[in-house]
Each structure stands twice: as C-alpha cells, then as structure tokens.
C-alpha cells in the first residue's frame, strides 16, 4: 500500500463510508510524475513544436517579401506559442519545475516524485505535519488531516494547513503558537501544553503540541489530545462525582460574588442546565447575598443563614446555607452547603426538576419571558390556545386557554384602539399595559407561525420604566438642588446684611431702650431664616457636617418637648434612656432631623383616614447599648463588629405593608396618600445615618405598628474633647459675658457692597483696623503694595473677576506674610476644598452675626 500524500479537498472528502478523513489507498493517491520528475516525451514534443514555430517565425521575419502572406500566419503562430509557453510555466508544471515555483513546491514535488523520505509520518498514531525551514507545509499524515477537516480549514489546496490555522478561532492560543513557530525557525525543540479550546470540535479539549528539527533542514510538528488523567483531573474525579451526586447543594464563589462551581443538585433546584452561564450569588438568592460571602469570619467557623432560592422560572425554594472559608484559603473562594428543607438539616433531599429541552415547547415553557400561542393571525379577535408559566405569572393567571387575547391588556382607550395597537405588533414591538393590578408595562411582538397561527412574545419592562422614571426624577431633583444651592447662597448674603446691621443696632439700643424689643424680634426672625437656609443647603447636599461628641441620652432629653409638639396632645410620648450609654460623634442637627422625621411618620401612621390629627396612639423612644452580634441576631446582618448606641422609635400605627417594605428607603417612594408625602424623608434619613457611619433598619407588622432602629457606632473621646464637653456644660449653666473688642489689621474682601459695608462697620466698631477690597484682584493689589501688613485676611469665596481661592493661589507668600486666612461662604467647604490643599485656611458658613465673626477673629489672632 502506498504511503499516501495530501490530496485535494474533493478527493480528501471521498470514502466508501462517508466519514471525515483521507482514504490512504493506492486508488486515491495522486500519480507521481514520470521519470522521477524529469521531462517526459510529451513535454519533449511540446518543446520541439515550440522551437519549430519560433524558427519559422524567424525565417518569415528575415525573408521579408519573399514569404508573402505566410509571414502573417507565422507571426500569429509565434504569438500563440508564446502565450502557451507563458501559461504552462506560470500555471502548470512551471509552478513545480519552471520559472515560477511557489514557496515549498519544489520540495513537495520531490516527495511526490517518489523520493519519499518522510513516509514514517503515516505510521505515527498522533497528528503530524512536516514543514520546511521557512515553515511552509509539505506533508501531513491522516490524523492531522482529520483534525484540519474537523476544524473546517482543509480547503481545496493540495497542501495541508499550518498548525496555527487549526486554532486561529481561539485568540488564547496565539501566544503558544508563536512560541512554537519561533522555536521551529531557530531549529530548537519545544513542547507546549495548550489551554482548553473549543476551536476544533466545538467542545472544550486540551492538546499538547511539540515541534523539533529533523534531518534535511525540515521541521516535524506533532499534536495530540490530552486525556483526563494527563490533565491532572484523575485524582479529583472521585471528589467531583461525590459533589455532583450529593443530595445537598454545594457552591464556591469569589469574594465579589461570582460563582466558580455549582453542583448538579443545586443546578437542578435552580432550573439550570449542565453548563450554566456566569452567575453571581445574588442571582440565586432573594435576600442580601453579602452575608453568604463575608470573609471577616475566617477561622471562627461556618455561619448559617436562611435563604430563599430563586429559580429561573420564578419558583422559590426555602433553604439553609452553611458558608465557610477554608483555613488555608488557597483559592480565595467562599464555600457554601445548601440544605433544601424546612428543617434545615442534611437529611433534606432535592426534588430535582426535569426540564424538557428536546422540543420547542419545553424551551418556551422555561423561558423568562411570556409566550402565547393564538388560534388565529388577528390578535384583535384571536383566543389563547396555550401560554407558558412566565405569561401566567405576568397576567396574574388570566392567560388561560380560550381566553381572548385582547382581554389580557388594558382597554382604557377603547376596544378598537386596543385591537389596532396589537395589530401593529406584527411589524414592530409595541409597548402596552397588561390589565393587572397594578398595571404592568410590557413589550409585545407577534410572529406568524407555519400553521397559520400567531405567536405572541411578551416581555415585562415595568422595572425598566420605573428606572427611567426615577432617573428623570433624579435629574429634575438635581436641577432643583442646584437652584436651591444658588438661592441659599444669595439668601445667606442678604441674611448677613440683616444680622450684621441688627447686631450694630442692638449695641446702640441695649435692653431698656424702646426700640430693643423690635430689634430683638428682627434678630430672632433672622436666626429662623438662617435655619431655613440650612435646610435648602441640606436639600442641595451642600450642608456642612459639624460632628460633635455628645451623649445620646442628654440629646434626646433636650429634644423631648420638640418631639411632643410634633406628635400632638392626642399621642402619648415616652422616652426611656438606657444606662451607661457611650459617646457618639455625629452632627446634632442632622440627627435631630432624622428623629423628627421618624416621629412625623409615626404620627401620620397613627392618624385615622379622614382625620386631621392622630388619636389614641403611642410613641416610644428607647436608647440602649448593643453589640453587633446581638444586632445580627435580630436580623440586621450587614453590620460591622463593634459596640453601638441603639435608638428605637416605635409606634402603634397601621404598619408597613409587605409590598412597600423593600422600597421604604428609596427616594420618591411614599406610603402616604397622594399629596401628603414627598418620598424623600426616609431616604434623607437613611443617607444621614450612613454618612455618620451608622445603620438604620426597621421591623413592621400590619395592624400592630413599626419600629425603626438606629445604630450609631461608639466613640471614645480624647481628653481635649472631654474638657470641651465640660466647658460647654458650664457655659450653659453660667454663660460668660462676651468681649467683642480686639486689636489687629484686617483685609476684608467681599464683592457685595451691602455685606462689605455692614461687616466692615462692625469690625471697626470692635476696634480693628480694616481695609476693604471688592474682588480678588483688588485684594492682590493691596497686598502687593503692603506685603505682610495684615494679621488676618477675611474673604468671600465666590466673587467676579477673581474668586477667593484663586486670589490665595496667585498671592506670593511674602505678600500674605503671617496672616491667617478666613473664608466666608454660603456654599459648603467641600465645593472648593480641592483648591486649598497647599495652604491652611479657616471657614465660616454665611450668614454670621457680629458676635460669631468677631469671636472667630479673636480666636485666630490668639492662636498666632
């Protein structure tokens, strides 16, 4: 039997059995050229004929008129002979032995010519390829050609493809193929174990490729598929089978929640196939997934949690998960054992659900979108023949067989308009609402079946519409917030003028003067207006957080009267203080806002429908100390370890309905009647507590009441902070008279003339030398003329021409000297803090009274 050589694509595909491969028989191999590749008699005759034609043409050209018309005939013969010779050399044998040989063709032809020195490759039991030193393919055996045929790259060429083309569809194999090619060009031997790839057969397999030189300046390439034992999997087969066949579920997940492995039992409960797509832990459980993959318990044993598994068909399964991190933590993954039983015991067994995926009906039955088969092509008059589980759930059980298709949708615009809208779905998807309570937004598209029936595909887009609505609301509220911030800034400037002028007049009209009561009333109302300005800034998220160290019990005691006024006389209000409460460090104003908001919500919950005031209710506020472990035992799991002060606000209202529980802290979500709530109160409270480093949760029972729990982390104050707390307490008992007089040179920079005039007048009244500037550039000119002449520089932040921070950056250090810098602004310092990293500055929020400003100036000068 002949050794066999690479054949053309048509011949390589022929065989009596029709199988893929090359039949290595004498009947199918290409005939070798005669005479060992030398010219045969037919070729000699061809060359002789060409020579005769060329000679005759030469005679005709030299004889001239003597030959007559025969000269023209000979010229035509000359042209024809030239064309035949050219095409023969370029397209025929000339490619092998002529003037136009292709790369590697001569070497391949010599093999075909009978000098088969590489016949051994046909005897190899692995795929083999021979190339020349320039990596041009010459010869391949049957195994290699089978792989090339399976990869679909054999083509019509007589020569086999290079090995790199076998894996061209997988970019992960480009690097090892390059290393093999480089070794082949250098005459080196190299072996590569290739990564798993599906480029050959469509199924993942691993191969080993090696390359090495052979005598004659050629290169031998070999390729073989690795078995499971060679891939290092044999030792794990038993453990793999045990995990897959275990009656309990098992999964492994990375720290970010991405699932690495899931056994067969868990996949069956979730309704997943043998090769599920990439999932995360949050995709398979209904509750918070972070508690299953927490890593801060390493070395403290496993943690158990009750969960609700979510199948791809919407079916929920109660289970218990035992999650743990191995002591050695070699792969950085969290393991979890899942027990599928109400008793949460390993005895629970898995009721594996079988899914018929062999037919289209089985596929659509498990589809995550709605599918319905109609008995006609017109959706306006057709009835439902069948529907899948997703559509039954979306329509709340209305898509039963024989139900009219139009009855599934909202017909508020009329039956004719609804039928017209549904007919449009034959061309493009339409958006419409299902007749559910509440209505559900869906996309509907119809397709014509082969049997004349219509197929309806219905996708739930209610969440998408809700997100779009929330985004539009968010954009609107952001714009309103920017407007509020600008209004607050301008309002603060006006209040500064009022408060500074009022302070000036109160010094000239002290207690006992006839004008004192009216001036005092103006001052009090200006202070109230300042609180309104702070609320605007808080809404715009540009408020200044002033964290203080204080005792929560004392704080709530001071707010008891305020809470009673909020609740009204008909609601019984009680505050119970815990013992030995630790200190906390939060913003008192923000915490007061949270407590008042929770009390207001409790009052509304205890107010009967149709009544203007609450009746026969009770509000209980309790404080206590609690550890994080005890809080987790109450169901509040996502909490860091440590000690907390817990504030409980409990009411006896109607409770929160389950459908609202998951959205209670979302912006713009309100459980109150239309027009009685903005939906921002609890969202703002949640943000304030989170920004303070704490947590807020709630428990509720319909008809019984709701309890909100605030957890503020314990704070250990320094000795200086304890002394400051004691000084504040002494000042409350016996306030010291304020001395507003002082000495020093001040440069005051403010673009608004009324603000500048009122503030400068008060500073001069207190004994300071003040020089004023209308903007940053004017202030730079003054400092340049008088370098280092000022003790303190007071500047507004937002000014035309040059802002306060820009002025500070442009000023030379010699111009500023030892002067302290104090910024006054209606904006929060966070909005310009990035411009002031290279220079220490101080900040006061507008509006400020004369006593506040002068007190801060004296404090800064004393610190010098």
UniProtKB/TrEMBL annotation:
Domain of life assignment: Bacteria
Keyword Mitochondrion carried by entry: no
Domain Histidine kinase: 486-716
Catalytic activity: ATP + protein L-histidine = ADP + protein N-phospho-L-histidine
Coiled-coil regions listed: none
Annotated protein name in UniProt: histidine kinase
Biased composition (Polar residues): 20-32
EC nos: 2.7.13.3
Keywords: Membrane, Phosphoprotein, Transmembrane, Transmembrane helix
PANTHER family, alphabetized: SENSOR HISTIDINE KINASE, TWO-COMPONENT SENSOR PPRA
Enzyme class, broadest EC rank: transferase
Tagged with keyword Repeat: no
Boundaries of every Response regulatory domain copy: 745-861
Residues with 4-aspartylphosphate modification: 796
Region (Disordered): 1-36
GO MF: phosphorelay sensor kinase activity
InterPro entries: CheY-like_superfamily, HATPase_C_sf, HATPase_dom, His_kinase_dom, HisK_dim/P_dom, HisK_dim/P_sf, Sig_transdc_His_kin-like_C, Sig_transdc_resp-reg_receiver
Membrane-spanning parts: 44-64, 70-88
Pfam families: HATPase_c, Response_reg
